[in-house]
Amino acid sequence: ARPHPLRVWGLAIRPATLWASVVPVGVGSALAAADGAFRPGPAAAALGGGLLIQIATNLYNDAADFARGADTEARLGPARAAQKGWLSRRALLAGTTAALLAALLLGLYLTAVAGWPILVLGLLSLGCALAYSGGPWPLAYVGLGDLFVLLFFGGFATAGTYYVQALTLTPTVALASLSLGLLATAILVVNNLRDRHTDARCGKRTLAVRWGERFARTEYLACLAGAYLAAAAAAHAARAPALLAPWLTLPLAFLLARAVAREDGAALNRRLGQTALLQLAFGALFSVGALW
After folding, report:
1. I want to staple 245 with a disulfide (CB 3.0 to 4.6 A). Which of 5, 201, 241, 289 is the partner?
2. CA distances (Å), 226 to each of 188, 202, 220, 229, 246, in order?
3. Taking Cα atoms as reference points, which of 110, 117, 186, 115 lies closest to residue 153?
4. For the segment 230-251, what is each residue's pLDDT rounded down to a tens digit?
């Protein structure tokens, strides 16, 4: 049965995934506050811009994946609006355009606050939102989706948030950005591992398709390990042991690494959500450590 229209749009924007935008902005703002540079206006604009760009990416991805044959009845993940016939391609593209225009307005404000580097960063983010699953060489279809997520949910979101408030960057911020980008990439790796068979049939050449499931499982482990090592390096760079607080989530990371190394198919849906929860807990503890 077709859900209520508001419910359909809620499903299309994939609200459960939006924490991937909230967490790095929160960490960037916490680090700015720790350095005495917190500014609520730019922080709120960075959060809104990140959310809008991710929403636009999700909506466009819904339309593009269905058009390319990536989303079919064989899909193992949550329902998609285009594949179910709940929203037309035209409606999804209209939603994408509205989200990008709103993000552009926030980006202009942030450019006025922090200068041309934010304009360049904003234009790259807007372009990547469409290039992720659209254009002649979609990033997600040629194996560059992992790099996009690492940059967008790491450096762009965390370091960008800090920069619009402090107007500078530090090694601690760079390492924090790397940590969160790696955890966001781990979420994508689980998704691609689960979908590798249907992706291969439609020509979506993710790294899991190109190099196989063993590579994907190893990549997941490397992302988790790298995130914790980068957090430790950030604590060392800042001479702030409190930044080791995210290591309290290590038991969950260990359990997830074991599960993803063994499970397959629809069973990975649970691990996808748990990896997102890991990122949320990791980021929250990093923020607490920064403010401590």
Report:
1. 289
2. 15, 32, 10, 5, 13
3. 186
4. 999 999 999 999 999 999 999 9
